[in-house]
Amino acid sequence: MRVVIADDQSLIVTGLRLILDSEPGIEVVGEAVNGFQAVTVVDREHPDVILMDIRMPELDGIEATRRIVEGGSTTRVLVLTTFGEDELVFAAMRAGASGFLLKDVDPLDLIHAIRVAARGDSVLAPELVRRLVERFTAPSAESLAAISSLTEREREIFWHLARGRTNDEIGTHLFISPATVKTHVSRVLAKLGLRDRTQAVVLGYESGVVVPGRKD
């Protein structure tokens, strides 16, 4: 699994590299100290995952994420953040980031997050999700129109996706196999023009399909 680290703080980069270099099956194939370098390294190395700091000189992590995603790269972007950067994190998710992690994340959780992101699933730090969606999302006519194009079964799948549930969890709730869930998920993401499950979570809250504090 190939990983790039983009952060202008050398101590952060050194710490992340030490953790990743000690993990079998993970290789750090590049580093970047600004967004321009991040985009260039991704274009050159085609990593599975890039760990992207939000605040970097010359070009920030949000714009770098947007350029990577809009350029058609299959690289998954994991945003590195600290408390107090909620608005920036949400902007990065809208730009196409596959998830976000706090910079003081436990090493084992970091490894797990990279593996999860590499296989196309969402990585959302639970302690930040509720605050993000409560502050920065609101229903929109555009998102509601997109969701209305889904079939009844696809809307069920989307609702579970927007709550961050895995294929196995969705299958258990709907009494269908994980393979069937996977087919539905791919169709839903394609119909809604979403890159991955993280964007489904964002759209779910923006559209009002999922409301913080409600389970139905």
What does this structure look like?
The chain is an alpha/beta fold. The protein folds into two domains: 2-135, Rossmann fold (3-Layer(aba) Sandwich), CATH 3.40.50; 139-207, Arc Repressor Mutant, subunit A (Orthogonal Bundle). It contains eleven helices and six strands. It has helices spanning 10-21, 35-45, 61-70, 86-95, 107-118, 126-136, 141-148, 152-162, 167-174, 178-192, 197-207, and strands spanning 2-6, 27-32, 49-53, 76-81, 99-102, 123-124. Strands 2-1-3-4-5-6 form a six-stranded parallel β-sheet, with helices on both faces. The longest helix is centred in the last third of the chain and has 15 residues, at 178-192. It comes from Micromonospora sonchi. Pfam families: GerE, Response_reg. Keywords: DNA-binding, Phosphoprotein, Transcription, Transcription regulation.
What's the quick description here?
By secondary structure, the chain is α/β, with parallel strands linked by helices. The protein is 55% helix and 13% strand. The chain folds into two domains: 2-135, Response regulator (Rossmann fold, 3-Layer(aba) Sandwich); 139-207, Arc Repressor Mutant, subunit A (Orthogonal Bundle), CATH 1.10.10.10.
SSE blueprint and pairings:
Blueprint: E1 2-6, H1 10-21, E2 27-32, H2 35-45, E3 49-53, H3 61-70, E4 76-81, H4 86-95, E5 99-102, H5 107-118, E6 123-124, H6 126-136, H7 141-148, H8 152-162, H9 167-174, H10 178-192, H11 197-207
Parallel strand pairs: 1-2, 1-3, 3-4, 4-5, 5-6
Helix pairs in contact: 2-3, 3-4, 4-6, 8-10, 8-11, 9-10
